[in-house]
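thread: overnight batch results

M.L. [08:02]
morning all. the overnight job finished for the chain we discussed friday. pasting input first so we're all looking at the same thing
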Amino acid sequence: MLKTPIKFVFLLLIIALNLVCDQFSKVIARKNIAPYEQISVIKDRFTLTLVENTGAFLSAGSNLPNIVRIAFLTVLPILVLGYGLWFLYSNKSLPRLMQVGICFLIGGGIGNIYDRIVYGSVTDFLHLDFVLFRTGIFNMADVSIMVGIGLLLLQNLTAAKIKNQEAEQEEASA
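M.L. [08:03]
and the structure it wrote out:
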């Protein structure tokens, strides 16, 4: 429950930690991995490969005209992230899990937007290949975003389970 500015500062700290983790890992990747170099970390299952992604997820939108790409991949996300911060601040009774999930989404989003503004592309460098589960090349901001989505889904499932239990108890007592 968000009741005091101190709690909001704590949520901003979660956002900042996500952003710092992302940007720190990208600085290390840019300094130590040549573009398209493949460094095996765990056999061929976990590799580091530096790529600059001018599009969104899996390079979607990379071929759009520059003005359209800026509008959809920079301006629109900035507006959405701003709304997310406002939503987080103005909704005082959000469940904690939802608050933390939103923080992870915002932190990851800011990390990728920062890259897009400063470098003109998003630095990706992580790749997983477990035969049946294979990813595109991604970064720590993407991990933050996926963790945020996972926390929001968990919150939703937990709330639905509690609601179903309450409904069953009402039926049983009626």
